[in-house]
Amino acid sequence: LTITDVEAIPFAIPYTKPLRFASGEVRTADHVLVRVRTAAGVVGQAEAPPRPFTYGETQSSIVAVVEQLFGPALVGTSVLDRELHRARLHRTIANPTAKAALDMATWDAAGQLLGQPVHRLLGGYAESVRVSHMLGFDDPQVMVQEAERMREAHGITTFKVKVGRRPYQLDVAVVRALREAFGDEVELYVDGNRGWTASESARALAEMADLGLTLAEELNPADDVLGRRWLVQQCPVPFVADESATRPAEVTREILGGSATAVSIKTARTGFSESQRVLHLAEGLGVEVVVGNQIDGQVGTLASVVFAAAHASTSARAAELSNFLDMSDDLLVEPLTITGGRMAAPTAPGLGLHVDPDKLARYRQDA
Ligand code: MUC
Ligand code: MG
How much is the average pLDDT of 165-181? Predict the structure, then answer.
């Protein structure tokens, strides 16, 4: 069980369809594959996606912090020593996706060593979860076509619509076009990535009042503290904290401060161990959670479905698991599949992750 080596491999895979949203745009998955090797020769793996516009990390900063600080802190410990890992890694602030990938890689190794799938080690609640697809900025017809394609090809009927453009009517028109195209057959919710002011958000929500939205996420900046509280008080659906509540303490602060009424959990930034802390905190506070997408590749998406399937409250809502479909290729030997609008949690020991060595050789950036 002893960790003998930790590796951080930068790789880059282009998107066929870039994702655009209020805080940025992703054209290439320039991620880092993190590997934790044990004395028994087992290798645990996970993916860290740099999101400079959200967490300040870059591909090189993730590689550097793993090689210089976090890797050496884990070598010599057991893959089961998660509290010790946390104590050591949290001496360094920030760097959430680097920490999260290391945590998930240790769970992957532990699952392989114990012969159990990680979703069962975490909680074992469900075999599969419903999938929600994120629709990035585009013209209304293009976004309707994209939703239609996802429904036809994968049976997906839940869509998170990116909003936060100016004027806000651009986005209201998209949501209206989606509702008109699909009627009651689809679930729709919106994510503003802090693009609007509180008053723009309030006007947009009022104009979308007849469109049956189920959630509203980060419509304006949480740092506009009073404006956010004013908005959340009048929001008719749960208001989801995503980038404003990435740690347990932030979740407490935002929920108790009246700045959110639901929480997005992303394994890309809180791994499995810290995501469980966030989940249990949300349950204790009595707020709903949604399993979010950090624009993950297939390795990261596998981690998200494992976490979502493991617990009752993470599998209650559709989890955001499908944006890897817009990548031109990926690292896994067996690509992930979505059928009937659902994705299954892997049943193989660990995360059931098999990275194709040829693909890794093709896309790695350090060779
Ligand atoms: C999301 O839910 O916001 C876009 C920016 C980010 O941090 O995550 C994605 C999706
Ligand atoms: Mg979000």
Answer: 98
Ligand 2 centroid distance, CA of 169 (Å): 20
120-344, CATH topology level: TIM Barrel (3.20.20)
Q: Which of 45, 112, 294, 298 is catalytic?
A: 294
ipTM of the complex: 0.98
Domain spans of the chain?
3-115, 120-344
Query: pLDDT digit string (tens) for 335-350?
Result: 999 999 999 999 999 9
CATH class of the domain defined by 3-115: alpha beta
Q: Model-level pTM?
A: 0.98
In this structure, the residues whose C-beta lies within 6 A of any atom of ligand 1 are 21, 23, 51, 54, 191, 193, 242-243, 292-295
Beta strands of the chain (E only): which ranges?
Answer: 3-10, 13-21, 24-29, 32-38, 43-48, 128-135, 158-162, 187-191, 216-217, 239-241, 262-265, 288-291, 319-320, 342-344
